[in-house]
Design a protein that fits this description.
Radius of gyration: 30 Å
Helix content: 10-25%
Strand order of the largest sheet: 4-5-6-7-8-9-10-11
Bound molecules: beta-D-galactopyranose
CATH superfamily of the largest domain: Glycosidases
Number of domains: 4
Number of strands: 58
CATH topology of the largest domain: TIM Barrel
Shape: elongated
Number of helices: 12
């Protein structure tokens, strides 16, 4: 009975378009050497990575996750950032933008499984690699079983695990896998790896546990495959295209990208497969999107699929998002974490999304892919420039033949005839492969009620719609295609559109054609149910959307997106994004009406049996100019008379940091509880009168600086120290920022009296701990050395108050304006003066407000654009309604456009922009500053 119920629920899920198992009832997750299984049903896991902490707008989580599902992904992989939730030991926040319960509910509603990755270490180019900065002050090596660290990470796991546990597939939720740690391949502390898993089990995690191995895969998983610390399903990370976006023409500089089989009893799992890149060389993310564009996806993803037989994929990233606040690990990334992903930071779909959709729909529709073994290729090309590799499903005999260039770097186009010994007979068929492309061709496949002998077009999807099979096949525009289908007797073939030649011999119907726009062939009779064959190009295939309804699947083209569909009576309702133009739907004959969102779309029936109509263009969006800027200079901390008596005395003589201070007292900001953003220091000394120079060293992370005043006189600035990330455990990080000498100008010292050195240090974020050596992670931030001759200095420090419960610990640093609320929308700035373009050294705030009333029912993401060339002499922190949405400046990175996400942005009200500009010298401020849109569609969410 339970089995029957399970089967029924799986069926219901399939009908409703959700992957089996993503439903309210409890399910069982098992696996064998081929694939994961839910309630015994095989599953090809197709996941893309998403970081909720990089999209601080929970209502937009749904948008992104629905876009994942609409591309054919059935899972989302999610890191949970410990740092994002915990400002200090024992304090955790899971509300508002940190509401991960809501996130997991949203994933389930979107029909996605979840790979839950709570670390404790996550890397992800996030500050501290996800470890809160307070962990820097905990004794004991991070990412080990040292007792101090253990107590800290257990605290996190016991908070996050129960939330994840209640959303597991085994309890009717979406979480299908639990990922312990992250690329933990250097510091091989088995007890630590084991303890993470023991804690998870104790907290109720009962889905399979995985881990993502890096680089030198085998090292960790094979050595420890069965010992303490071993996980059930280890996977491998692969980034074959590297992160050098400046040269997007490179082709697999880091290898073939073939995911290794780690064990015989588990599926091959591509735990993180490159789907974008960090922008190490500041080339801009469009270049990263090019580096990892459709050509790369076609070649590397398909090659991996057919060569390794992987059935578990997680693509990093599906949507990158924003390093808002102080979320970035500064040595690798700037504000945008767009990643060159398929979905941009502003949630726009790109040609990479189309390629994911073509491949994703294929993996979802063609079930035999979930269980394959390698076979000697049955298809031989007669052109040596081309080569084939193949797998087959041992139960159905279905063949999957990969056709690609023998030289993977080849860029020319080659034609060949394939001599193909398919399960249903031998055939000679034409193929054409462009350089840096690959095709997965299928033979011996029960395509719905049809028998596909073979095709040199690729299968995108097929569905039983209104009693007939509708199949979408595609190939490169202009290339030849041949599709052979088997029939009991001669079928009737009607070419409804396009140029397709049909020939029936023996029991085979052979169709020959050139891939061009969208050809339509209706095949009836022949002892099978009717087939509508849609033969497209890459472009026309990508125009199709597939969605499930209670009355079976539907196909839609002409919309920008289909989020969900339902049929009631004669009406097909779509929740979809549209931008105007023709729309076509393939639904059962009972469907006669189309409703998109709240609008009826008049339709007529076509000879293909589909319905066509037209959607309305969205209303244009008008954005106000940003005028009436007001400004106020700050940095009273620089003045000698400033009252710092309530600041924290910086008087420690010891630190647990593995980096000893060069001078005492210890001035490391973290040691005094100031972990994020700017910190101020004030050092008092009684001058002998002979001091000529102040020596200061600060460590800030890449892109950081510090500014120095003596008795209110500005002395200048210097670049802060940076981690030297050699990636090599034997090379320690470089905490030495080099010289920071500041001459004492004549007449500024006050001999025998109190003199004050004021220093503003930018803490750009914390190093990660990628190689688990603890040294990089525990590199201090703030001043690491200070002297003025030999004169004793007594120091005080001030940083972020860390008291914003809404925006969280990473939103603010310790600028005077931040401590006083100048970034907040409610701050009364009426008395501020009209802004001038010229800035003095120090910190100047600029504020303006604007009203928006964007058209309702549309999605038009808004951005803030800095025109002109930024100066390296200033850096700008950008606050939208109090939220720190990014940093701009000549030394900060190539970014000029900043996303103002809906939710933080009031699309129907007044918004405040506050800019905190830190200038190192007199300089003309940033500008012109404008609002713009990244896109505009009608939407029904
Ligand atoms: C991987 C790591 C991810 C991310 C990625 C590069 O090594 O596991 O967290 O850092 O590299 O973006």
């Amino acid at each position: 009975m339970r089995r029957l119920l399970a089967v029924f629920l799986v069926l219901l899920c399939v009908l409703l378009g959700a992957p089996a198992g993503v439903g309210a009832a409890a399910h069982e997750v098992t696996y064998d050497r081929y694939s994961l299984k839910v309630d015994g049903e095989r599953l090809v896991l197709q996941s893309a990575e998403f970081h909720y902490f990089r999209l601080p707008s929970p209502e937009l989580w749904r948008d992104v996750l629905e876009k994942f599902r609409a591309a054919g992904f059935n899972a989302v992989s999610i890191y949970f950032s410990w740092a994002y939730h915990s400002p200090k030991p024992g304090v955790y926040d899971f509300t508002g933008v940190r509401d991960v319960d809501r996130l997991l509910r949203t994933a389930r509603q979107a029909g996605l499984y979840v790979i839950a990755r709570p670390g404790p270490y996550i890397n992800a180019e996030s500050t501290g690699g996800g470890l809160p900065a307070w962990v820097k002050t905990v004794p004991g090596r991070a990412r080990s079983s040292a007792p101090g660290y253990r107590a800290a990470y257990r605290e996190w796991l016991h908070r996050i695990n129960p939330i994840i546990a209640r959303h597991q597939v085994t309890r009717g939720g979406p979480v299908i896998l639990y990922n312990a740690e992250n690329e933990y391949q250097v510091n091989t502390d088995a007890a630590y790896m084991q303890d993470i898993q023991d804690q998870a089990r104790a907290d109720g995690i009962d889905v399979p546990i995985t881990t993502n191995d890096c680089c030198d895969a085998g090292s960790w998983s094979s050595t420890w495959a069965t010992g303490p610390g071993a996980v059930q399903i280890p996977g491998v990370d692969d980034y074959p295209q590297s992160f050098e976006c400046a040269d997007p023409g490179v082709w697999g500089p880091w290898g073939e990208g073939l995911t290794e089989r780690l064990r015989d009893d588990i599926p091959v799992f591509a735990a993180e497969y490159q789907a974008g890149a960090i922008d190490l060389g500041n080339a801009g993310y469009d270049k990263c999107r090019e580096l990892t564009g459709p050509a790369y996806m076609k070649y590397f993803y398909k090659n991996n699929l057919v060569t390794t037989g992987a059935t578990m994929f997680s693509y990093y990233m599906g949507y990158g998002g924003t390093n808002w606040g102080w979320l970035a690990q500064p040595n690798d990334v700037y504000t945008s974490y767009d990643y060159g992903a398929a979905i941009t930071e502003a949630r726009q779909l790109t040609p990479k999304y189309d390629e994911f959709k073509r491949q994703g729909y294929f993996l979802e529709a063609v079930a035999p892919l979930a269980k394959t073994e390698p076979i000697t290729s049955p298809a031989a090309p007669d052109n040596p420039a081309l080569t084939t590799t193949a797998r087959a499903n041992p139960d159905t005999g279905t063949q999957f033949v990969l056709v690609k260039h023998a030289d993977r770097a080849a860029t020319g186009t080659d034609d060949a005839t394939l001599d193909w010994a398919a399960p249903d007979g031998r055939h000679r068929v034409p193929v054409r492969v462009r350089g840096r492309d690959a095709h997965v061709l299928v033979a011996g496949y029960d395509l719905g009620g049809q028998r596909l002998v073979l095709s040199t077009s690729e299968i995108m999807t097929h569905a039983l719609i209104g009693g007939r099979d509708v199949a979408v096949l595609y190939g490169t525009a202009g290339s030849p295609g041949a599709t052979i289908l088997r029939y009991g007797s001669r079928p009737a073939v009607k070419v409804l559109e396009g140029d397709v030649r049909a020939e029936f011999t023996g029991s085979d119907l052979r169709l020959d054609y050139t891939h061009d726009r969208l050809a339509r062939v209706l095949v009836t009779g022949g002892g099978r149910r009717p087939l509508l064959l849609l033969l497209g190009t890459d472009e026309t295939a990508a125009g199709f959307w597939r969605a499930g309804t209670g009355a079976g699947p539907v196909l839609v083209r002409g919309t920008e997106l289909v989020r969900s569909a339902s049929v009631s009576g004669e009406t097909l309702r779509l929740a979809a994004d549209t931008a105007g133009g023709p729309v076509e739907v393939f639904a059962g004959p009972a469907v006669r009406r189309l409703r998109i969102g709240a609008e009826d779309v008049p339709v007529t029936r076509t000879p293909s049996g589909s319905l066509v109509g037209a959607t309305r263009a969205p209303e244009p969006v008008r954005l106000p100019a940003l005028t009436a800027w007001r400004s106020r200079a700050e940095a009273p901390e620089a003045a000698p008379g400033f009252d710092d008596s309530r600041w924290t005395a910086a008087d420690h003589t010891t630190t647990i940091s593995p980096h000893p201070p060069k001078t005492l007292p210890v001035l490391y900001a973290d040691d005094y509880g100031y972990h994020y953003g700017n910190v101020w220091y004030r050092g008092h000394f009684t001058a002998a009168g002979s001091e000529t120079r102040i020596d200061l060293n600060a460590v800030t992370g890449l892109r950081g600086n510090y500014l120095v005043w003596l008795n209110g006189r500005y002395l200048g600035s210097a670049a802060g120290g940076v981690e030297a990330d050699s990636g090599d455990a034997s090379t320690p990080p470089n905490p030495d920022p080099g010289p920071g000498h500041f001459d004492v100008p004549p007449g500024v010292l006050r001999p025998g009296a109190d003199n004050v050195i004021s220093v503003l240090v930018a803490n750009m974020g914390h190093n990660d701990d990628w190689i688990a050596d603890d040294l990089r992670f525990k590199q201090p931030r703030g001043l690491v050395a200070a002297s003025v001759g030999g004169t004793p200095i007594s120091w005080r420090i001030q940083g972020s108050p860390g008291t914003d419960p809404l925006r969280g610990p990473l939103n603010n640093g310790g600028l005077y304006g931040e401590r006083t609320g100048w970034h907040l929308p409610t701050y009364p700035d009426k008395s501020w003066k009209t802004a001038s373009a010229e800035l003095a050294p120090g910190v100047t705030w600029l504020r303006t407000a604007f009203r928006l009333d964007l058209p309702k029912g549309q999605d038009a993401p808004v951005g803030l654009r800095f025109g002109g060339e930024p100066s390296p002499a200033y850096r700008v922190q950008i606050f939208l309604n109090g939220w720190n949405v990014g940093q701009y400046g000549g030394d900060i990175g190539p970014q000029r456009d900043f996303v103002l996400p809906a939710g933080l942005l009031d699309e129907h009200g007044t918004n405040t922009i506050a800019l905190a500009v830190t200038a190192e010298q007199p300089v003309t401020g940033p500008g012109p500053i404008t609002l713009f849109t990244y896109g505009n569609v009608r939407t029904t969410r």
